[in-house]
From TrEMBL:
Domain of life: Bacteria
InterPro entries per UniProt: Bact_solute-bd_prot1 (IPR050490), SBP (IPR006059)
Provenance organism: Luteococcus sanguinis
The protein's name: ABC transporter substrate-binding protein
Length: 441
């Protein structure tokens, strides 16, 4: 197998033209020249002999050590089963990949690329930038019926092969809590009381980061779902609700009251750095996806992790709604090796491939219902328990909404709130103005 390209080499292939000064504020602003196209069928011509033999390029957005190891294990296992199909994996850092996705898909993308289920997948499908994989999806056993909608276009065609998902929860170290005698809070008042107790013990209650402009989105999402309910949250993400209304202002007022319990200066801290504070025992909790476990060595360190769903705020709404982003794979609009790419997609949707993945990276669980959960770690079994108990599952702000709105409007808006939490009305007024403009297009 050819070596993975370096980030610098691969970035050159992500652009159709030089893009200078790109940041989260400018990502996805470009107008899609292919916007009028319908979702295309699989238009590649495969390899010469029609079997799919040859090279399949794969755009991988997992550059950190643990998830990269997991995806490499998948690729290696696939190669053993299909020695005639060579996977060329092109790896780019997660945030960099997301910030260049428009240029990437409109240029010369890989045959298969990693992406997310939900609105963000449908958005690119509606622009004609990816292929229909309904045939592969239907032939893949074990995919939960509950995930079909998240992997489909509005008119019912599947465009995502789902692989793994992970809940966003409040994570903590069991040894630290047992030593201090802390108990899992069931309500917001109990959470605040726990935070005050941690402060007395010399701990910062919550780790916090928002250096890359997406981490805080998760906290907004859960506060909104706990305060206003899942249906309202989804309507808000879909551009169907006014961002300046009192319901949204109430979310930020609640958040402002919780900020003293969080690490200060979040904009200068990566999620990995925040996770290390929990690992070192200087913070008591961290609301993040369970991928946080990637920062803890496998074995004793990971076994020391536990979590709980964010507690109830309104008893009439409860705490059943959670976020569990689903990661998967998509087929580009004109794959160079369609048959080989489809064979690879089919394998990645299988229970076998997903077990290979989650055994290498125990911070996620397989979506395939035929996966052997007896091989799960205690942390993964807890994730599965939480997923089974969820009443509603959101995908995350930057997946449940338009990518141009989530990344260019909400990312900077939430960072602005963290800098100045006392000017919510003005901030939401600007967000609402941009919502009207973006969702009208």
């Amino acid at each position: 197998m050819a070596r993975p390209q370096t980030e610098g080499e691969y970035l050159a292939t992500l652009r159709t033209a030089p893009v200078s000064g790109l940041s989260r504020r400018s990502l996805l602003l470009g107008t899609m020249s292919l916007g009028s196209m319908a979702l295309v069928g699989c238009g590649g011509n495969g390899s010469g002999n029609g079997t799919g033999a040859g090279e399949v390029t794969y755009g991988n957005n997992q550059a950190d050590e643990v998830p990269l190891k997991a995806i490499q294990a998948n690729v290696d296992a696939f190669q053993q089963k299909h020695p005639d199909i060579k996977i060329k994996m092109n790896t780019v850092a997660h945030t960099t990949f997301q910030e260049n996705i428009n240029n990437y898909l409109q240029g010369s993308p890989d045959d298969v690329f990693a992406w997310f289920a939900g609105y963000r997948a449908r958005f690119f499908a509606d622009k004609g930038l990816v292929s229909d994989i309904s045939d592969v999806f239907a032939a893949t056993e074990g995919i939960p019926a509950s995930l079909k909608n998240a992997c489909s276009t509005a008119d019912g065609r599947q465009v995502v092969m789902p692989a793994t998902y992970y809940p966003w929860v409040v994570q903590y170290r069991k040894s630290v809590w047992e030593k201090r005698g802390y108990e899992v809070p069931k309500t917001l008042d109990e959470l605040k009381a726990l935070g005050a107790e941690m402060e007395k013990d010399g701990l910062v209650p919550f780790a916090m980061a928002d250096k890359d402009g997406w981490e805080a989105m998760g906290l907004f999402d859960i506060l909104n779902m706990r305060l206003n309910g899942y249906p309202f949250h989804i309507e808000l993400m879909s551009g169907k609700q006014d961002w300046s209304q009192k319901k949204v202002q109430d979310v930020f007022d609640l958040w402002r009251g919780l900020l003293p319990l969080h690490q200060p200066d979040a904009l200068g801290r990566s999620w990995q750095e925040a996770a290390r504070s929990l690992q070192k025992g200087t913070t008591g909790m961290y609301y993040l996806g369970t991928f946080m476990a990637q920062q803890f060595p496998a074995g004793k360190e990971q076994e020391d992790l536990d979590f709980f769903v964010f507690p109830e705020i309104d008893s009439t709404i409860g705490a059943g709604a959670i976020e569990a982003p689903t990661d998967g794979f998509m087929l580009s609009r004109r794959p160079k090796n369609e048959k080989g790419a489809k064979t690879f997609l089919s394998y990645m949707g299988s229970a076998e491939a997903q077990m290979t993945n989650v055994q290498a990276d125990p911070s996620a669980i397989a979506v395939n219902e035929k996966a052997d959960t007896t091989k799960y770690t205690s942390l993964q079994k807890r994730m599965l328990e939480v997923m089974k108990g969820a009443t509603d599952v959101a995908q995350f702000l930057d997946r449940d909404s338009r990518p141009d709105f989530a990344s260019t409007v909400m990312g900077p808006a939430l960072q602005g709130f963290l800098k100045n939490p006392n000017d919510v009305a003005s901030m939401l007024s600007k967000v609402e103005s941009q919502r009207k403009s973006i969702f009208a297009s």
